Amino acid sequence: MTTLSIVIIVAFIIGYFFIAIESVTKVNKAAIALLMFVVCWTIFMFDPSAYLPNAIGDKAALAVSEVIERHLGATSTTLFFLMGAMTIVELVDQNGGFNFVRGLLITKSKKGLLWRIAFMTFILSAILDNLTTSIVMIMLLRKLVSDKKDRLIYASLVVIAANSGGAFSPIGDVTTIMLWNKGLLTAGGVITELLVPSLVSMLIPAYLLSLSLNGNIEESAVTEVKVDAASFTEKQRKAIFFLGVGGLIFVPIFKAITHLPPFIGILLVLGVLWTATEVFYYNLKKKADVGGMKKRVHNMLSRIDMSTILFFLGILMAVACLETIGALHMLGDGLDSLFNGNHYLVTGIIGVLSSIVDNVPLVAGCMGMYPLAETGDLAIDGIFWQLLAYCAGVGGSMLIIGSAAGVVVMGLEKITFGWYMKRISWVVFLGYIAGIAVYWVERALFF
Fold this sequence. Notes:
Elements: H1 3-20, H2 22-25, H3 29-44, H4 60-94, H5 99-105, H6 110-127, H7 130-144, H8 148-167, H9 174-181, H10 187-210, H11 219-223, H12 234-258, H13 262-286, H14 290-293, H15 297-300, H16 306-324, H17 327-338, H18 343-353, H19 359-369, H20 383-395, H21 404-413, H22 417-423, H23 425-445
Helix pairs in contact: 1-3, 1-16, 3-16, 4-9, 4-12, 4-13, 4-16, 6-7, 6-8, 6-10, 7-8, 7-21, 8-10, 8-20, 8-21, 9-19, 10-20, 10-23, 12-13, 16-19, 17-19, 18-20, 19-20, 20-23
């Protein structure tokens, strides 16, 4: 390994460290990720010919630009997918599309509510994304449960169910989107083989947490649930919900039929939903409903979390630099030698690490470590890629800071790191290990 390679790796590690301690420095991780991206590739330019044989003399800048643009093209497909999905979910949410979900959750039994929350979160996070699902469920919980002690348990379960639900769906988590987008997983493969392990990883913690809940919910808390006033009629709100959520479900089908990249399918859904809401708003405009007009799509676009998009851009392009210099392939070979090619152990450790540091760069790094093979564990829908999707998604629930869903719920419900680690982490770990065991049994008997 050259000195230049070591400098690039050190720059990446320093940036990764500051991303991990974002809560301490208060510096947005998107800013650090963008700096990592620029610094790594700037250092690379000092001697590009060491990594690119055709980057000699006047051709150096052109060769490097071609490499960066190639990586940027692959990264952009993920970014456009996320932007489209975020806009669709925001549009459904702001226009009352999730209102009827509240009615499905109402029950007097504390344990009954726990199971309804668990399954509703699990299902929604597979269709939406785990972060958005967590926010929606916490907003509903605040109107259903007044007891703070009980609500902390429910909120913790939301984090667990959201991450487990996102792990078996090609559109449920950023990491699975990345793996699916790059062709390492197929929609059918990840759903059929990871559904049961993901479900087990949610059911075991849910059962253990249900043991601490007894009795009924206060009547006053239940009666507080009301449907928000909205400019659209009930039929229009349901139409928005089914167009948005149904469209997200249709995206993998669209890819299977057309073989086009997933981001094209998500933009198709956005276009259809956008057109439908414009028709609805045309009627509102005739009724002079000024308040409702503020929820049109072109206003929603300004509400997209661009810092998240820029974070993914920065981190994926920085990882691309490590891949170009060969560092990721060396690390992959080292892990294979250390663990004798045991992919269950490698991905299991990655899952535990994803509870400490962000799973996006971990998965991006693994995608660069191991080349796609025609057969074996590294083939499309191979054991390694499927376990990586499961472990990176479910493993993030072990600590409250281990996933975007966890961090958001931590802020909304003021869950402390120590309380979660003492009360929740061990039940998550049991579900995590059980899910891996179920996957091993599935592979041994059925696949």
